[in-house]
Every structure is written in structure tokens, then in C-alpha cells.
Design a protein that fits this description.
Two copies of one chain form a homodimer.
Chain A lengths: L12 H15 L3 E2 L2 H6 L14 E3 L4 H13 L4 E4 L16 E4 L6 E5 L4 E4 L5 H8 L4 E2 L10 H6 L7 H4 L2 H4 E8 L4 E3 L13 H5 L7 E9 L1 E2 L3 E8 L3 H13 L6 E5 L1 H11 L8 E8 L1 H17 L6 E3 L2 H12 L1 H4 L8 E8 L5 H14 L6 E4 L4 E8 L4 H20 L18 H5 L1 H14 L15
Parallel strand pairs in A: 2-4, 3-4
Antiparallel strand pairs in A: 1-2, 5-6, 6-10, 7-11, 8-9, 8-10, 12-14, 12-15, 13-14, 13-17, 16-18, 17-18
Helix pairs in contact in A: 1-3, 9-11, 9-14, 14-15
Chain lengths: 471, 471
Amino acid sequence: MPVETSAPVRRDPKAIEAAVGALAARFGNRLVTSQAVRQQHGNTVTWIENQPPDAVVFPQSTEDVQEIVRICAAHRVPIIPFGTGTSLEGHVNAPQGGVSIDVRDMNQVLAVHAEDLDCVIQPGITRKALNEYLRDQGVFFPIDPGADASLGGMAATRCSGTNAVRYGTMKDNVLSLKVVMANGELMTTARRAKKSSAGYDLTRMMVGSEGTLGVITELTLKLSGIPEAISGGTCPFPSVEACCNATIMTIQSGIPVARIELLDALQVRAVNLYSKLALRETPMLFLEFHGTEGSVAEQSERFGEIAEEFGGGPFEWTVRPEERTKLWEARHNAAFSTFTLRPGSSMIPTDVCVPISRLAECVTETQRDIAESDLIAPIVGHVGDGNFHLTLLVDMQNPDEIKVAKAFNERLVERALAMDGTCTGEHGVGQGKMKYLLAEHGAPALEAMRAIKRALDPQGIMNPGKIFALS
Amino acid sequence: MPVETSAPVRRDPKAIEAAVGALAARFGNRLVTSQAVRQQHGNTVTWIENQPPDAVVFPQSTEDVQEIVRICAAHRVPIIPFGTGTSLEGHVNAPQGGVSIDVRDMNQVLAVHAEDLDCVIQPGITRKALNEYLRDQGVFFPIDPGADASLGGMAATRCSGTNAVRYGTMKDNVLSLKVVMANGELMTTARRAKKSSAGYDLTRMMVGSEGTLGVITELTLKLSGIPEAISGGTCPFPSVEACCNATIMTIQSGIPVARIELLDALQVRAVNLYSKLALRETPMLFLEFHGTEGSVAEQSERFGEIAEEFGGGPFEWTVRPEERTKLWEARHNAAFSTFTLRPGSSMIPTDVCVPISRLAECVTETQRDIAESDLIAPIVGHVGDGNFHLTLLVDMQNPDEIKVAKAFNERLVERALAMDGTCTGEHGVGQGKMKYLLAEHGAPALEAMRAIKRALDPQGIMNPGKIFALS
């Protein structure tokens, strides 16, 4: 058990019983205590064991959430907000028991302001459903994590994805939140204006707080216009280093690349197997450019020239939607595709992020470490941001192998931190990365986080045992 | 005196004497108590009266700042961080006395990482000095408030400027901060990686906190590549509404405009007088486009077509640096130019920000209010963000006039808030906008801000009497 992971010390069973009773009386069959549903809410895609909550409740409104929080607060019972359960570091587990608040029924688009390029939504809507809804209006929401996650969860974990190099992460695309605080009060973090300097940035404080400060019940999101033209393609390179250097040059040249994704040779092989493609099995960049017809052609050509300078190419690109979609579906399925490399294994995803100047070195050292550890772990990277993911393919029945994989993960984080990087670029902390926060941030920063947590959740009921230990 | 402005209740004079004595012993002639220097540090460009600190100290390092804070904390004496004193809402005033920490000697560039597009600097360097330093390296820092402010102050007030529509505000361009906290400990808010999801966003919590949570002693800033080509120009319109509608269409069309600035007819007249230009005295947009030669031409032409659709034009643009510079100098001098409209008057700047769909309505109603109030108040706006400024030209010797101006300002803020806007888009709260925070944010948000303040500054010594009252 990692040092900072909360031991599964459950709260007072009588208090939990009382709270669940009160919730059942109020919410009827929207309060579920069956083992199957609890277990389904007690785990994410991770190597952290299942830790089910005592009950799952399905609110239909902000007022419902306020009532649930008030009931739980009165009994000092933990609250765990739940979106789609697709987070990766044990964020929704219930190490201390308590009540999982599943917002799947709060999935409405409340308003779209196309002139202001924003929309107001409930937290349970997923990113694909939102974009489906928005499509006719010429706007889209650009943040695209691997899973079809809920927007509430995406905000809570400060996630990003392949478009972040151009459109930013969740911190850049949330204008305002409504949050039910630990005392049941409803806080609005900001107005709908595009910018403000009126006091502390409560929006950014909530984005990435992983449910430890409150439950998000409404989001105002920044939208982007659907580009008039999109070009995209793939470009092989002789080495990871060449990929990274071409990326740096592309960004320094001011080419407003929308997506620039690294796949290492092993990941390309997995993608070929899974998506029936015939890409050359060498380090490769997947790219996309957004703009006018003229500008995407210009951007694509200029990138092609840069690639050549670093021994890469040919850059094969197209503006035809069906070809682009095929490519990006393959990229989005990269994580799933890794199973083809070791059928029957479990997939342990992890991510780090470093300054882009150190990326080639970090990836190359990591590949060497993978080889030396006898692991199978393909790499994909949002290289424009210096962020890369590994999928460790592990036999979860083999304790030795898990041990090797965990030790490898420690070294990966240490390597990233030594390069002024972060232990998690976009997956969040949950329980899985808790033990690295002190090394990453230092004691004063961690103490500031704890002080904020204590100030806003004095009973410690909001998703306890995540991000940091309080004692 | 506005309700939420701190009354100038000074702290215990003996404590202040003891702290100033200890600082003098340690810092010698870098501790100044002359009335002239104290007064110079006790005011900003505002209608709030001068409230001088008891002493001004000039640290040369982070360690110096830590020592100053420890001495002040031991005596419970207020600390007011000071950059260039160009903030606009009484941010650096000392309503409770105390020690002003002037960081002018901490003005070094510590590192430039051109490949990572970032730099590490001390807080006292100004934006122009930084860009002068960076110019040879092909990168620049885009945030440009009216004044040549210090970067520490710009971060503390979450300022922005004319480039924000494309490059964002300070919240988007600070990667990490070193901050001396109220207990003298040094907190680092984040690593140098371009993104992270490792815990609470302490960087964004400090940006905009106006010195009330700590003293910024080092900043890691995101840089941008100097564009290969820049085009810019002016475009007259028949009305403010036409300006706003053309702006909305430009942004919706995905034209990545770098600057799009509204000047109302009165402001154009002032600019003509001050900068010896001959612009048509009608509502006007100043624009700038960044990109490749091909793309800036394309953007400029497309904007010209949009302007025509709304009855505007001709859009006269150029890529010649000397002409562009002349234009933007005139825009940057807009605030000063207003003096020409009423020589001898004082200038009271204010700003609000609304969703862009409400901007035309907000500006038009405000112009009517100006006329009905017999005020002279030209308007400039960062219209891409829905943010606009007024410069009220007031005779500060005339109490009636000040009363009229203050009442007007109240109505301006109420109007913006009624449109889901903010009482301050980029000037910050200081003392001047304190009384609007409750109406803007609501009680739970304001209480969350206060809880954070109490948690991180339990003695209440960090720039007290700003943003919100604590009692």
C-alpha cells in the first residue's frame, strides 16, 4: 500500500446506516445499495482494488444534491461524486465507505449561447453527447480525453486530451461552475463574462479538486467554432527524438497545430493490429490543423518541411473527413489497441508531463527502462504539451509482475520530477499518485492545499482519502 | 466611504515601531520611512485617498522577502507588496498602515527556455523591459496592460490587455509562482511542465489574489513566438453596435484575431488630438492579426468583408511595422489622450466585462447614462472579450461632480452584473470594487474566499483591507 494512500478505515457504521436510511426515505428507488451497483461505483481503470461505497444515489437536480450533502454532512458520512467512472487513479473509490452521488440523470444542456461561444450544462452529460447536441450550431467543445467521460468528471480531474496543445485543458475551458459545498450551500464560482479579475479564482480552484471540495452540479463551458477546414495526417520519423524536435520547431514557428500526437513504434504496431491499418512501424506523429482551407494547406506544407529537416516524412495529409476520422478513431482507440500486444493482460495506464525540451530524453530513457524491466508498455504522447502516456500490460494474477510494474512507475515519476515535470499531466491524483505530491510540490504547497481543504470541508466528508492525506 | 472599504484603522503603533526598528536594523538604508517615499507608495491611479504605509523596504532576493515577512508576522504588522504602483483600485494603499515591500530591485530575468516557450523572472521587471530582453530570441510575452507594469503586480491583479482575445490573461500565461506565504515559508505553486493535474491549482489561486495571500517573488511565464507576420489597421463603423456585431462574427468565424479594440467616437477624437492622427470621429475598431504572410493577409481580407456586412469600412490595413506601431502607440496612449478633452481634470479609470452578446447594449446604455449625467467619459474596449473601459474626467475639487461620477460608476457595475458580467474585467478589486463582490459572487463564494484567506493568512497581515472585509 503506497504511503499516502488512505487506508480503508470506514466511518462509523451507525452513522452510515442513519444517513442511508434518511436518503432512502427521501429518494426511494433512486438510492441503491445492491452489491453490484456499489461495486460498479467503487473502482476506476486502475490497479487500486475495488472499494465500494455503502450506497449510490441518483440525483436529478442541484437541489437533490444539496439535500444529499446536507443529510451526509449531518451524519459525517463521506460523499463521492461519480460521473462515468472512467478516471484512472482511483478517484471514485470509497476507501472510507460513504455515499456515491452518480450524476448520470443530470445530463441536460441548459443553454447554448452561440454568440458568446459558451454553453451551460449539467455535469452528467458526456463529451460526445454534448458535441452531438452542439453540432448543428457550428460550435464544439474541444477537450477529448480517451473515454467518453462526463463533463463534471472532466472538470473535477482537470483533464485534457489531444486538442489541448491548441485549445487548452479543462482549466482553460470552464467559465464558471455551480458547486454544492460541504455544508450543502450552493456556490457559483464566476459570472458568464469571458474574463474577470474580481477576487480569487474559485473556478480554477474547483477544476482539478477531484470532488474533495464540493460536488459540481452545473458548468458553463467555453466553446469553439467548428473550423471551416481541417487537415490531418501521419508522419513517420527515424526516432522519438526526431518526433520531439520536429514538434518543438513546429510550435516555435507559430504553426497553430490543433493536434500533434506521438506514437512509439510499439504503439503503432498495436494500432495497426487493432484498427487494421498499415502504418510504418516506427515512431510517428499524428497531426491535425484547423483553419481556413488556405491556412490548413499552408500549415500542413510547412509542417512537412519541418519534418524533413529532422529526417522524417513523408507527411501524408488530407482534408477528406472520412480519412481523417479513420485516423483519429485509431488514435482514440490506441489505449484499447494495446490489448492486442498481450491478449488476456490487464491495462494499467499512467501519464507524466515534462517541459517539452526534456521530452525526447524522458521518453527515450523510459523506453530503455521498459526494455530493461521486461515490460510491455507502448507510449502515446500529447507531445505539443510534453505529456505522454504509457499503457503497462500486466498479468494482474502475477504479484512479481505487479511489483516490477509499480517499481517502474515510481522511476517514471521520479524521472519526470527530476526534469521539472509533473507526476500526472492529465489523469489527476486520485489515490494512485498521492504519494508523489510532496516530492512534486514541496511541503508549503501541500500544506496550503490541506489548509484550503480544511477551511472548505472542515468535517472532511468530501471524497476523503484522495489527493493528499489530511493527518 | 463605500460599505466594504476598510476604514483606515491602524494597527498597534508600538508593534509597527518594533517591526520597523527590526527591519531598519536588518536592511539599513533599504528601509525608508521618509514621508515622500511613503506617500508615493500609498496610492494608485484612483479616487481613493492616499493611505501611506509606515515604511517602505526594498528587498533584493526571495530570502530578503522571507525575512521581512517573518519580522512583520512576529509583530502582526500589515505587509503590502508593491510593483510599479500603476494599479487602479487602491491595491497598494495601506489603510491599516504597515510595511510596503517594493520589489523594484528584484528585476532580473533568471532563465529563458526558448524551446519550452517559457522564462523565469523576478517580480519587479516590467513588461516592456522583459520584452526588450526577449526580443533577440524570437519570443515575447503578450500581456500588455496600459501601464508598463511589473510582472509581479500583473500576476497579482490578474491583468490582461489588448492581446487577451488571442493570448489570454495572466491566468493563462503564468506557469508557476514562488510565493512567500504569511508565515515566511516559500511556496512553489507548480512545476515548469506546461500542464498538470496534480492537486489544487495554487498558481491560479495566487494569480488575482492581489497580495492578500502572499508575496510573489518569482514567476515562470509562458512565452509566445514572435509572429512571422503582423497586419493591423483601423475600421470605422456607423455605430458601437455595428462594431460589436462585426467582432462577434469575426470570432465566430474562427479568425484568430490578435487584437480587436473598440474606441467610441469621443475616444477617437481624444486620440486624434493627442497623437496627431486624422481618424474619422466615429466608433472604430483597431485590429491586429498574427500569422504567416499569407494568413495575415487572408485574415485581414476576411475581416474587411465582415465589416462591410455590418456597414463598416473601409478596413485600412498594413503589414508595415512603422505604421502599425504608430497606431498601437496611439491606442496605448488612449488613456492619457483623454486629458485633451478636459485639460486640468483628473482621470478616473474603471472597467467592466459582460458576455459579448450583451456588449453593444451595455456600451450603448452606458453612453446614454454618460450623456444624461453630464459626464465626459470616453470608452475603449477589448471587445473580443466583452471588456470595456471608461475614463471619467472629473474635477476632483468639486464634490458634486465626484458624487455624480460615483453614482454613475455604481450604475455601470449594476448594469454589467445584470447582464451576467463582472464588476471588473482586468483592473482587480483593490478597495475600489470591494462593495460589489457580494452582488457579483453571492454569499457562498465570498465566504469561500474569506475561508481561504483565513486559512492561509490567519493573522490577516497580507495586504489587509483589500478584495473583501474579513469581519
